[in-house]
Every structure is written in C-alpha cells, then in structure tokens.
Amino acid sequence: MSPSLFFHLVLLETKKLMSYRVDFWITMLVALVVNLVILWALWQAIFAESGKELIGGWDLNGILAYGVMVFLTGRIVRGGDLQMTVATDIYDGSLSRYLLYPRHYPFVKYAQQVGNILPDLFQSLLMGLVAIPLLGISTTTDVSPMSLLMAIPSILVAHLLFFLMSLTPQYIAFWADNVWSLSVMLRFVTMLLGGAMLPLTLFPESIQDGLRWLPFSYLFEFPTLVALGKIGFVQWYQGICYCLLWSLLMGLLSIPVWRRGDLRYTGVGI
Amino acid sequence: MIRVQNLRKIFKVHRKPPGFAASVKSLFRRDWIDKVAVTGSTFEVNEGEIVGLIGANGAGKTTLVKMLSGIIHPTAGEAEVLGHVPWKREDAFRRQIALIMGQKAQMWWDLPGADCFELLREIYQIPPEQYRKSLAKLSEMLQIGDEMNIQIRRLSLGERMKMELIAALLHSPKVVYLDEPTIGLDITTQRAVRDFLLEYRRTNAPAMILTSHYMEDIERLCERIIIIREGEIVYDGSLKRVMREYAPYKQLRLNVHRSSTAPLDLASLEAMGQVIECDPGSLCLRVDRDKVPEVAAELLRKYSVIDLSIEDPEIGDTIERIMAGKADGIR
Q1: Is B256 left (phi over 0), alpha (psi -120 to 50) or beta?
Q2: Of A95, A230, B186, B286, which is most buried with the most CB atoms under 10 A?
C-alpha cells in the first residue's frame, strides 16, 4: 500500500470520528471519571485493609499511576470501536466493497484502525494532563520525558499486535456469522492476561512464568511499564522486537484462515 | 471482454424449522441443505454492449454478478473478464471493473462525496489530471454541484445514487456491473440515471451487465437480454427476438358502434383468435402475427368500427411469462 493512501485512510477515519463532537467529548469525560473513581476507591481500600506499604512491588501511588496509565494506553492499543469491524464487514456483506478495490483488505482495515486511534491518542493526552497531576509521588515508578517518549513506539507496536491478534477470531465470521461472543472473550482474555486489569506482578509466580511465553503482556503491561519508567533501554528494545515477532506470527496465522474463509464468503446484503 | 463457461454456484444453507425446540436443537446439531443459485451459465459480453440480466428475486442474477466481479468464488465452471479470472482478484483486474449496487451503499456514510472521491483516487491511483477531468465530466453529466460537500447520509436517495455512480466510474472501468441501479428512485431520477448510462456507454464503450426489475431500464438500455430462471439461463438474445419467439401474437383492440352494428358474436371471434376482453362496444383479441391482416380485415368488414389498434404485447408480460416458465416454446 502506498504511504499516501495509508495517510489518506488514517486522516479520513479520524475526520469521521471527529465529526461526532458530542460523542467525542462525552466518551472521554465519562471514561476518565468512572475509571479514576474506581481505581482510587479499590486500591485505597486494599492498601488500608492489608496494612502493607507495598503490594507486588507497588506502593499505593505507584499502582494508581499504573491504573491510570494502563487505562490511557489501553484505549489506544485496543483501537476504540473498530475492533469488530472485520467481523461486521463479513457478517453484513460490507466486505464486498473492499474486495472490489485493488488493495489488500487487512492493510486498508489497519490504516482505518490507526485513523481510529488518533482521536484516542489526543484524548489520552488530554486525560493524562488532567489525571497525572492528581496522583501523588511514588517510590516505585520513575516517569520521565524519556520514558514517555519510549512509550510511544511501544504503544504503536502493541496496537499492531492487538489488531493482528484480533484478525483470526474475526475471520471466524466466515463460518459462524456472528462472532460477537468471541470478540468479547478476546477482549477479556487480553485485558486480564495483558495486565490491563491489574499488574501481572500480582499474579502467582507460576502464571507469571507462563505469561512470559505468550504475547499478551506486550499489549498493555509492557507499554505501561515503559511509560512509568520501569523498563530499561535494552529491555525496551527487546520488548519491541518480541512484540513485532508476535505480530508477524499472528499475521501469518491469519492468512490461511482468510483463504479458507474467503471461499465460503457469500456477500450477503446485495 | 466477459466470457463465462458453465459457471455454477451452490450455497450451503442452514435449514432451521420454526419453534423454540428447533432453536435449541440447532445449538447442538444443524441441518444444511444445498441451494443451487446458478446452474452452469454460459455466455459472452462484448465491448460497448449492455446486457440486461433478468429474473425473479432469487433467480441467481446477483450471484452471477458477484462471481463475475470477483466477490465470491464459484462452485464450478470458468469465467474470464478482461483476460483475468475474477475471483483471483488481481489488482490489474480490479482496476478495470466497477460494481454499482442499488441496494447497498458503497460510499462512506459519514463523509461528504468529495472526500470519498479523493480516497478512491488514491485507491485506484488515478493520475491527478485524469481524476480532475473525470470528476468534472461525471459531475456535469449527473448535475452534481454542492451536494459533493454534504455528508452522504444527509443526501436524498437519488443524490446518493448519483454519487455512487461517480464513485464507481471515476477510474474509467472497462467492465461495469449494475445491480438494480434505479431501485427506489423517482421517475425523474430514474430517467436521469438511464440517460447518463447511455451517454457513458457512448463515450467510454465499456461492457455492462445490468440487473433490474424495471422493464423501462431494460427497454431503454439493453439491446440484448439474458433471462434467468432458478439459476438457469432460459433465454439469451435480443429484445426483439424475445418478442418474436415468445410472443408470436399481437393484440387487436377495437371500439365499435353499439347501435349500428351486429352484436359481437363470441363464437366467431374465438375462431379468429383468443378473446381477451369482450364488452358491448369494445373488444380485445390476441391473434397470431401472420393472421393479423386477415383478421383485421374481417373485423372491419363485419363490424362498424370506430377505432382499431394493433399492439405488441407488453414486453414485461412476455418476460414475466418466460420467467414463470409459461411462455410458448420455452427451452
């Protein structure tokens, strides 16, 4: 795909989302307030009840910072509402339009997905400016301009991995029509095992060991830890490479599924 | 340009009987049936030709179009469009075709037409100069002005269809599939779309396949038609020939003076042809084409005729009869 087409698709998708101004601001405000209240109430109670200063290597302010940061990065990684569009395209026949274009369908969808995260990126930045000053100083995090800079590519590769990871389950729509439940399952599994609900250091050792061999931690925990300054440069570089490797694997896995599914496509709706 | 050889498509369809018990059962075990959508179609379409694909709902017209545009794979058979196998979806093939679907919007609902066209320019890699000329020409032909800057979802159905036409033809395709392009449009817009398509054919000479339920589309646009019944092609030829072969009769309609003429005698009329209507003062007879002069003379001699007209049967009626398998001499 030519860079100018990619850029065009990205901008168009962003423009489309920005045209719904009310939705844009309400989504942001509600999500921020609800998450801040839940995080604060939950972890305040846990720390008070346990009487401990540190839980899983985090103090209260540190874990609140993790919660805020993983919420902000997670929104970008998941790419908003677009995560089901491939399955929806297959289900309602909108895929037909893309099959007519002389372009590779997943690339077009990826460009649209990137376009979809630009408003999220902007929103997360705004929310970060509001929420981060409210957090107290933590001895377990080390946020710096450098760590925040390093977080940007980490988030982008995590987003690519999430997109490619969600392709195969969505292609199941060629056989099952409606794969909403699969998508919900994928969302919860990735959020839980990827560290979007709580830091993976709070999991039992054996599970943590197992998760090291899986791609989930690169989705949410990795970019968050990078932003919080808990990942050194070498580890960061390795993490990016692993994430890209997993992305390649997920992309390759989706190809035969697409080929088999394509043979069954009926192009309903026309 | 388009060559189709024995093309078949069979869909596997989940059969679900009504009722709650059947729904529960379907969670564990499903019954599938084969639904034959297209049975061994063979035909060719040449450059500059508009071929009307006619058939009842579910006859297989759209399935055929979907295979020829590369959207779906056939179960068996061969097809070649511009030297390409459509379902291989080579870029060189997709750059030269367009599919316009009257029932399904292909443009981006939340964006104005101008943005959609720009995106299509990128997708098809249309050189800027050619794009500007194409857009200006198509907009002028379809009389589109400021509408181009309004979100697609806020346009009327007619305006949206005009946008769809521009979007589909911007890259000057050599093969155009039109799936019910005038469905739901008012008479004026239907006419505008037909005029536009004729003009487009005159200037660009693409091969076009048109499906439509409106006979006026077929009569105005197509010299050749293909009639499909239950997935099978039952007629492929000119519109004129369909009338000659499948409607070998004409209708004689006459009004007679009630007072000064002999009463209409049903028995003698039936000897001349099939009586369609027989009221005091008016009569309609279906007569074999070669007997028309003789019967007309007989009627003029026998009755005091005020008015006599000789009509071809409605083409729509004839095609409907073919589609239903009722026409004389159907293959």
Answers
A1: beta
A2: A95
- For residue B105, which of B116, B95, B94 has the smallest C-alpha distance? B116
**Containing domain of residue A38, as a range?**
3-264
Question: Could you tell me which residues of chain A have a Cβ less than 8 Å from any Cβ in chain B?
Answer: 2, 4-5, 8-9, 12, 15-16, 19, 93, 96-97, 99-103, 262-263, 265-267, 269-270
Residue A270 lies in a domain: no
pTM of the model: 0.82
Q: Can you give the three-state secondary structure of A111-147, one letter per residue?
A: HHHHHHHHHHHHHHHHHHHHHHHHCCCCCCCCCCHHH
Per-residue model confidence as pLDDT tens for chain B (331 residues): 899 999 999 988 877 777 777 777 776 777 788 888 999 889 999 998 999 998 888 888 899 999 999 999 999 999 999 999 999 999 999 999 999 988 777 788 888 899 999 999 999 999 999 999 999 989 988 888 888 899 888 988 888 888 999 999 999 999 999 998 888 888 888 888 898 899 889 888 999 999 988 888 888 899 899 989 888 898 899 888 877 777 778 888 888 876 655 666 777 888 888 888 888 788 888 888 888 899 889 888 888 888 889 887 777 777 777 777 665 544 4
For A160, the token pair is 């690519």
Q: Answer yes or no: is A174 within a domain.
A: yes
Count: domains in chain A = 1
Contact yes or no for B72 and A270 at CB 8 A: no
In a domain, residue A269? The reply is no
Considering only CA atoms, which of B3, B56, B11, B1 is closest in space to residue B321?
B56
ipTM value of the model? 0.80
A135 within domain boundaries: yes
